[in-house]
């Protein structure tokens, strides 16, 4: 990735945004290749062509970088999910649940970031950053719930918000178990431990069906 010389300090809003996007792209590459531990601030800065001190002009910590990456991934998922619901018949809770499971299970970056959102990403950022993150999440979640409620008109918007929130909680809990360490994967490959082998799409689909059935 082409870096930006450290002496070219961004002053205009569009310049600041461009540098933030450069850092986010570097963080995404590192996160996908090496996971959260590989996406440290030094590594992000080096990949983007910055110095670590320059990164602090645009983000307060590596956790804020990853929070922004999470919001970016969620922002990409929401319109795709909402558009996909157009083909689902009104009241078809099974098809809706299948769509939910498919969207989340096929987005590994979003799944992994969701899994560390509360425990890691919100641990080294300011209250202002957390509030901004939650507000953006609230807007995106409301859009998801609105699209869901159009297909389940017998459910309230509050019920749909709850269901979407619970799906996020399920993804956060399932994802680490579905992506075990190499040693754990070898153990889980043994037939005696088959019950401990989760499948994100299968299990999330079943859980989403139960959630939607409870509000439909």
Question: Brief overview, please?
Answer:
The protein has helices at residues 13-34, 41-48, 52-55, 62-84, 93-105, 108-115, 117-121, 127-151, 157-178, 182-188, 200-215. By secondary structure, the protein is an all-alpha fold. The chain folds into two domains: 1-59, Homeodomain-like (Arc Repressor Mutant, subunit A, Orthogonal Bundle); 63-215, Tetracycline Repressor, domain 2 (Orthogonal Bundle).
Shape: globular
Residue share in helix? over 70%
Q: Please state the average pLDDT score.
A: 91
| Distance N to C terminus | 48 Å
Biggest sheet, open or closed, and with what strands and sense? none
Features:
216 residues; disordered N terminus; mainly alpha; 2 domains
List the SSEs and their pairings.
Layout: H1 13-34, H2 41-48, H3 52-55, H4 62-84, H5 93-105, H6 108-115, H7 117-121, H8 127-151, H9 157-178, H10 182-188, H11 200-215
Helix pairs in contact: 1-2, 1-4, 4-5, 4-6, 4-8, 5-11, 6-9, 8-9, 9-11
Describe this structure in words.
This protein is an all-alpha fold and 216 residues long. It has two domains: 59 residues, Homeodomain-like (Arc Repressor Mutant, subunit A), CATH 1.10.10; 153 residues, Orthogonal Bundle (Tetracycline Repressor, domain 2). Helix 1 packs across helix 2 and helix 4 crosses helix 6. The N terminus is likely disordered.
